[in-house]
Amino acid sequence: MTTPSVLFVCVHNAGRSQMAAGFVRALAGDRIEVRSAGSMPAEQINPIAVAAMAEVGIDITAEQPKVLTTEAVQASDAVITMGCGDACPFFPGKRYEDWGLEDPAGQGIEAVRPIRDDIRARVEALVAELAPLG
Length: 134
Fold this sequence. Notes:
The chain is α/β, with parallel strands linked by helices. It has a single domain (about 5-130), classed as Rossmann fold (3-Layer(aba) Sandwich), CATH 3.40.50. It is built from 4 helices and 4 strands. It has a 4-stranded parallel β-sheet with strand order 2-1-3-4, covered by helices on one side. Helix 1 links the parallel strand 1 and strand 2. The protein is globular, with a radius of gyration of 14 Å. This is Protein-tyrosine-phosphatase. Pfam families: LMWPc (PF01451).
């Protein structure tokens, strides 16, 4: 059986998509291949997103925003967008979901925690679907 792969996409690849990828790595380990990218990547990950993830024991400090490529989309089974709209490439046969999540950019930790928790719940459901435990 091949390992399912998921690509999380948001505009800057600095907050939502990085938190989602961090949760997949923490919850699924090597059962799911994970990528994240942005249509207009930021210079660095949002430090508030890093702090919010650290609160739940997940370290995303080593991650860097990456530019969204056609190859990343083609190599993924599921493409989860987080508000990038028309900037996301579309390929027939791929599974697409759009998670309407508030952008944590420029927000304080109090505002980012509920976004993080929403992402965690969505990722838990996605992991259970893509790579259920025996």
